[in-house]
Amino acid sequence: MAEVDVGKPLPAITSEAKPFWEAAAQNKLVMQRCRDCQAYVWTPRPACYECGSERLEWQELSGKGQVYSFTVIRQVVGRAASMAFEKEIPYVIAWIDLDEGPRMISNVVGCPVEDVKLGMTVSVVFEQQSPEVWLPKFKPLVS
Amino acid sequence: MSLRNKAAIVGLGETPTDRLGSKPGEPRKSSAEYLAWAMRLALDDAGLSLKDLNGQGLGVTIPTAYPQPFWPEEVAEILGITPGFLLGGATGGAGAVSLIGGMAAAIHSGLIDIALCIGAAAPFSEHFGGGIQPGDMRDWEIPYGTMGPNSKIAMVMRRYMHEYGATLDHFGKIAVAGRYHASLNPLAYLRKPITIDDYKNSRLVADPVRLLDCVMPANGGRAYILASPERAKTLRKKPIYLKGFGERSNPSYGPRAGSNTLVMGVKDAGKVAMEMAGVKNSDINFLQLYDDYIIVVYLQIEDLEFCAKGDLGFFERTDFTYQGQLPIQTGGGMINVGQPSTAGGMLHIIEAARQLRGEAGERQVTNAKTGLVSGLGVLPYGKNLGCCAVAVLGNEV
Ligand SMILES: [Zn+2]
């Protein structure tokens, strides 16, 4: 098990997002999907933002996707940033386009930052941040 | 409802920008001081007095780092105004342009016949704490170590370069044109001309975003005064008419869970504004585009349909200086004049009005009759900018 890192800012576990974090703690990537229009809905919310339906259900995803774009963080800057990230530098912030369609912000881990490329296929891994929070991150998919 | 010719800009107030407070022991000014200064300049320019603003419109941009929900009311108290219609610019950096639409509608309705739109911030002199972050940012971005807007715009820029093959030369050309204009603008903060190589060699801030891609935060205050066309004719300066206005907040091109980040809401806001104004692209003499980053200026030129998406040749052959085919950022933009938080976006309205009055000095666009201004604000999760407002201004009815 990864060392629990309590220094970094943690997400608030809101009522809409609770099922997501419960699944993540089981190392499952889940997302809301609309029963009426079949749209995936991300981030978690009370109703479908494509059709307004409240008939959303949680579905498990493949956990696979592609790097849509990324940047490399080499410096902690900005009023909302935490110095707790300094020891991770350099690290990758990426937009991951999941195979099911939705785009997530995450980190690409498990390879040198120089190896990250657009279009690269990745799969989810979970890193524990607190007793409740396991963050989904993505590592290169070795075929 | 069309707002064409229903309101006119009659007063401009722009304080110089500074970065006082960035070094220990420096003298400091508060945002209240920049507000009072900007208002005084705008009133003098219009030939109005403070008393003329009572019972009228007051529009206030809300700074990002001032977590006080009643800020517009506090500004009224600071300035000594009793407004009859008080509006907060709730669209972040787009607020300055959003306010022109809201206030013009209020003027057209007869509710008011003058409006002061104003904003100020002193991010180097005053520290109100970090403010409250939007839920998506708090829960789904910051835990990954995102570093504010730089991280997201860097991803937009890299994706654009990947899809269309744009290079630093394409972006650098816009940075060089903006700085050239700043060198001709006595109110600009960064005035030393730069070359493409200076741009390419500037420090990487968030790969591929470089220092010379980024807006420069500054202390300062800015204001403009709107009036009904009838009232405008009685005032000191040549009225600059609002010809068209359009706004799109929370745009998504494609499914909301995975939209095209390379298309911006100015596409639709611009279409609405230009249709209202009854103008074509070829009628527009200059653009003053919201410029938190160079790539954002670049994408807006495409999305306003001055060229097709990915038409690199257009950027290679077009002269963007004030003497060129498509003058942009004719005062240097916020990137060179400075961004006092959300008051930053006022700059583009002020510069457009100056050009249309013929008061732009060395950087005057010849025979300027019609100009387009944009405002942008907020970077939502997984998308390009979330609030987009466009105004078309002109100097003839
Ligand atoms: Zn739906």
Protein model, in words:
The complex is a heterodimer of chains A (143) and B (397). Chain A is mostly beta strands. Chain A folds into 2 domains: 47 residues, no CATH class; 82 residues, OB fold (Dihydrolipoamide Acetyltransferase, E2P). Chain A is built from 1 helix and 8 strands, in the order αββββββββ. A 5-stranded antiparallel β-sheet of chain A has the order 6-5-4-7-8. A 3-stranded antiparallel β-sheet of chain A has the order 2-1-3, with helices on one face. In chain A, a hairpin with a 5-residue loop joins strand 1 and strand 2. The longest helix of chain A is centred in the N-terminal third of the chain and has 8 residues. Chains A and B meet through strand 2, strand 4, strand 5 and strand 6 of A and helix 4, helix 5 and strand 5 of B. The complex binds zinc ion. The site of zinc ion has 8 residues of chain A, from loops.
Topology of this structure?
The complex is a heterodimer of chains A (143) and B (397).
Chain A lengths: L17 H8 L4 E5 L5 E2 L14 E5 L3 E10 L17 E8 L4 E6 L12 E8 L5 E7 L3
Antiparallel strand pairs in A: 1-2, 1-3, 4-5, 4-7, 5-6, 7-8
Chain B lengths: L7 E7 L16 H16 L10 E5 L9 H9 L5 E5 L5 H15 L4 E8 L13 H6 L7 H17 L3 H16 L12 H6 L2 E3 L2 E2 L9 E8 L1 H4 L7 E10 L16 H12 L8 E3 L5 H10 L8 H6 L15 H5 L8 H12 L12 E8 L9 E8 L3
Parallel strand pairs in B: 2-3, 2-4, 9-10
Antiparallel strand pairs in B: 1-7, 1-8, 4-7, 5-6, 8-11, 10-11
Helix pairs in contact in B: 6-10
The complex binds zinc ion.
